[in-house]
Amino acid sequence: MKRILLLFSVFLLFVNMLSGQPERGYHVNVGDSISNISLNMLDGSIIDLKDYKDKVVVLQFTASWCSVCRKEMPYLEKEVWLENKNDDFILIAVDLKEDPEKVRSYIMKTGITYPVAIDADGSVFAQFAYENAGVTRNVVIGKDGKIAYLTRLFDRNEFDEMKKAISELLLK
Q1: Three-state DSSP class for 127?
Q2: Among residues 26, 102, 131, 146, which is most buried (max CB within 10 A)?
Q3: What angle do CA 149, 119, 151 make, to 5 degrees?
Q4: Rounded CA gap, 91 and 84, in Å?
Q5: pLDDT digits (tens, 9 = 90+) for 124-171
Q6: Which residues contact 145 (CB under 8 A, 6 or more apart)?
Q7: Adjacent-strand bridge partners of 41
Q8: Do 125 and 119 touch, CB atoms closer than 8 A?
Q9: Are 64 and 106 in contact (CB under 8 A)?
Q10: Residue 166 near residue 56 (C-beta atoms within 8 A)
């Protein structure tokens, strides 16, 4: 029985490798250019990422049910948003497939002050990651409109590397 399970596990790993789906769930890579993306903001406005040309942009994918997202958000608020919001920088939370009222409640509980978008149908998320790849992730886009850094889950070392990448991008 153990041998069958082992063979099945190896088979699944092999199928995953052949499918081209990276372990971290992204189908984009560092260096890829980002096309314009329109975001429906929680306040009812619509913004286009093209309007943030020459700024460093971080898209933080999140959802109220995501415990890792809730863990990461205070760090993003204090160490990324508050440290950089007066520079050529914008951090936008992109809430995945939730009702705006639920998102408002979630945002009040987290205490974040950075802007929040609603990705009601998951189409923004789908531009970066596979549908069931997991929501906790940050996409850092440089002033040149190219992906500069990608994170998955909340790992302190990776988070610190992301902060370093943002600082370097702001100097360019």
Answers
A1: coil
A2: 26
A3: 20
A4: 9
A5: 999 999 988 888 899 999 999 999 999 999 999 999 999 999 999 999
A6: 33, 34, 53
A7: 117
A8: yes
A9: yes
A10: yes
